[in-house]
Model the fold of this input.
Amino acid sequence: MGEIIESKDDEFWSVIKRRSKEKLIIVEFYSPRCFPCKMMDPVLEEVSKEMDVIIAKHNVRENSRIPLSLKIRAVPTLIFVKDGEVVKVKRGFTKKEKLGMSVAFLGLIIAMIGANTPLMWMGFLIMFTSPFVTKKSLEKELGRVKRQRG
Done:
């Protein structure tokens, strides 16, 4: 369903901006010697098989210019990109269930209200800061907002 690609400094923004118009991109900044990064490999493979996303793997040892410009200080770091905009950053190891839920919520928000709107950012703020937000409660709230907007 999804795909995994290698990311290089020279082509990073051109590829990310172009491809993020098609699908959500999750860029993993990793180091080959990093144990949590190695633990992320099977998680990212499963997510790419089960969800319609592009996983871009960026080796920070071989390609350090982009991570420095983005102030990536720790690996693994995941950045979520849609329509050329970074919409979420996650540092450290992430379990498949949590990553899958983040992708699903992000897809839901983008599908309902668009990628670059204040409402999308409000949805992210609620979704990633509240421990009580569930998919059902988010769908209900976004449905209410959508009906209000016409």
Summary: The longest helix spans residues 96-113. The chain has one domain: 3-149. Helices lie at 12-19, 35-50, 65-69, 96-113, 118-129, 135-149. The beta strands are 3-7, 24-30, 53-59, 77-82, 85-91.
